[in-house]
Amino acid sequence: MNNFLWGASTSGFQVEGGYNLDGKGLSTTDVRQVKEGIADCKVASDHYHHFKEDILLMKELGLKAYRFSFCWARIMPDGHHVNQKGLDFYDQIIHLCLENHIEPIPTLYHFEMPQALVDEFGGWKNRRCIDAFVEYARICFTKWKGIVNYWVTINEQLIAMAASDLNGNHESDKVLQTKNMYQMSYHASLAEKKAMKLLKEIDPKAKIGVVNAVQNVYPYSSSPEDVLAAMDAEELMMYMLLDMSVKGEYSFRVKNILKKMNCSPVKEDGDDEILHAVQPDFIGINYYSSICVKENKTATVNYQLPPFFRSSMFEVCPNEHLKKTKWMANGIDPLGIRSIIYKIYNRYSLPIIITENGMAYSDVLENNQIHDDYRIDYLKSHIKEVLIAKEEGYPIFGYCPWSFIDVVSSHQGFSKRYGLVYVNRTDEDVMDCKRIKKNSFYWYQKVIESNGEKL
């Protein structure tokens, strides 16, 4: 457990606020429509004005790593030209982390991009976005050469390319939306590979990884058809993206599934060379829960499901063996995180860091305290499984729960909270955004102090 990175995570648009300050351009997440009564990200957790206080809280907690993200539009408001004040903001965060012995792990792309690039050429639908992303990466890699040791390319490409309100591509035709999603995903994979290669040229000592939302999939029954359906679901929702990140190509199964769906991405000459040129140094795992699927007996695509759940090969169904809560609708499954570690390492043989893992709950502030024993139980049970895998020899080098402080959830605002630190605001009233340490903060502090021995 020496040098294990006990950390915590956030993302830029979900914590920063300051959406129109100091030269920041509009992000796709700034202009999206949210339901009435749900907080948007214009203020979020007001980290833009509280970042020094927040990093001192991280020091008090004992964090060894802070995984966060840059807002692309803060650094490059129009997607092309640099905003020095945006660079300065992140430079302060990075150096304040280092001064307090916290390893900064920045993510280049976490669910948002300059709206200007969507307006200009359609964002990820257009191959021009590849070059825009690589130039953005070049700016960041050059600025923090020799300073940042760990980089992340794209967070949860699965979600980033599927959620139209996050990537700015709104398509009413569900069939075309699905086809566009796979094309956008292909472009993002090319951009990611080019960025990896670029880092190796600019800062060879730095490491760069990918972070994926992982879907540990169980078959509904032991019938061969249900088992195959579960395999297909994992191929599409987990291995497809990781195969591109690590191996530079889709599996034969995925190629055939996409062909049947008429969703095979359009390629150009030279793409294969780019995709096979480099691979990540590590894989980040975002795990919250597992899912269960069964054979799709109708063999038709249900376009009412979330985009990556759409397939004629499987049908998502409830898992009767898991406890469910309001915000954890798929059920709580600690053993699933260990199963995922086995599967991913056995397929890719790369070091692993848990970059997100957390319990959503509508926390209630009582006498200036948050008694979130439910979150402690969730984190404890999952960390135990992670440590079992590590003790068995799997190269897991860090664990970052989601999230350090309460963040504005992309679709549920502040009624859905994950943080170890409470942010005093509601969806409709920003209030003072005071930071209040939850019971889980003090519990995790002891976990870190004991290097995982006191769970």
TrEMBL record:
Gene3D superfamilies: Glycosidases. Belongs to the glycosyl hydrolase 1 family. GO terms for molecular function: hydrolase activity. Keywords: Glycosidase, Hydrolase. SUPFAM superfamilies: (Trans)glycosidases (SSF51445). Signal peptide: none annotated. The active site is at E356. InterPro entries: GH, GH_1_N_CS, Glyco_hydro_1, Glyco_hydro_1_AS. The keyword Transferase does not apply. The keyword Membrane does not apply. This is Glycoside hydrolase family 1 protein.
